[in-house]
Amino acid sequence: MSGSAAPSVTSGPQGDARLLAGFWLGVLGVACFAITLPATRLATGTAADPQLSPWFVTFGRAALAGLLSAAYLAVVRSPWPARAQWRDLSLSMLGNCVGYPLLLAWALRSVTATHAAVITALLPLVTAMVAAWALHQRARPAFWACAVLGSALVVAFAWLRAGGNGGFGFDAADGLLGLAVIAASVGYIYGAKVTPALGAERVICWVCLGALPLTLPAALWLWPANAGEIRPSSWAGFVYVGTVSMWAGFFAWYRGLDWGGALRVSQTQLLQPFLAMLFAWPLLGERLDAVSVGFALAVVATVFVGRRVSVSAPASKN
Predict the structure, then answer these.
(1) Which runs of consecutive H residues, i.e. helices, occur in the chain?
(2) Is the Cβ–Cβ distance between 101 and 277 less than 8 Å?
(3) What pLDDT tens digit does each residue of the chain (318 aa) get?
């Protein structure tokens, strides 16, 4: 696929099966990413009870994923990306290896995983906007209506929930989370641009391997002096974000974006905040109430409706 073209979609039964498989791969990737919020909070701890440094978590998880990527690429004997592809890989690297995890880790030192899930719920709409701009994709107005409705439901949920918890309030952590959403969206879409040419698995591997000369030395330098005093649950959270959030989850996510279309599959991210809240229950003790379940069901409905009406218009020739 060229740098400015949208992924092609095959018509007929095989094309429909490919779209459906892409959608569910996107859901699987979102489920993997949903655990990122509680897992990151486990790794970093809180301002009152700090565990691993957000800087170490950011570079350490990317270094771990980079080492796994090096092994995978060696086993499959993957050829090096073309020079023209490194621009998109580098932008994905900045967004997914550095920007999103660092901003998220610092924010989660100050806010709960549930709070972060609400703010990052804007990720689907931002990703779709980046896809429309970067991939020159167009969608029917009904698609955008579903995207806006889903995001509006998330915002309404945030304010309703905040009303029973002493107020919502925007502070520095919310600003970090907002920037994290932008970073993740850029990383997702520019990675998706080279997925048809490189393959979903190879994209995230080259992204992580390309960052390894930076992330591995940084992780070793930032290795905690009190490593033996860090809780096992914090180390478990760190291992998860390094092996799944930063690596294996992208295998499903980029393949889903490729097969199902970035505009369509990006809407499955509307499920992520509610899955994150669900996983935060056993991991962090943050309980899920009936109001949360009700809003989750409403958002799920917008995802499925959006998927049905999201047949893209022809790509722009500009």
Answers:
(1) 13-34, 36-44, 54-76, 86-93, 100-107, 113-119, 123-134, 141-163, 172-198, 200-221, 232-240, 249-260, 262-266, 272-284, 290-308
(2) no
(3) 333 334 444 555 567 788 888 989 999 999 999 999 999 999 999 888 999 999 999 999 999 999 999 999 999 999 999 999 999 999 999 999 999 999 999 999 988 888 788 778 778 777 777 877 777 777 778 878 887 887 788 777 766 755 544 444 446 777 888 899 899 999 988 988 888 888 878 988 999 999 999 999 999 999 999 999 999 999 999 999 999 999 999 888 878 877 888 777 877 877 888 889 889 988 998 877 777 778 777 877 887 787 677 654 444 444
Return the structure tokens found at 167. Answer: 């107020």
Residue 170 tokens, joined: 């925007």
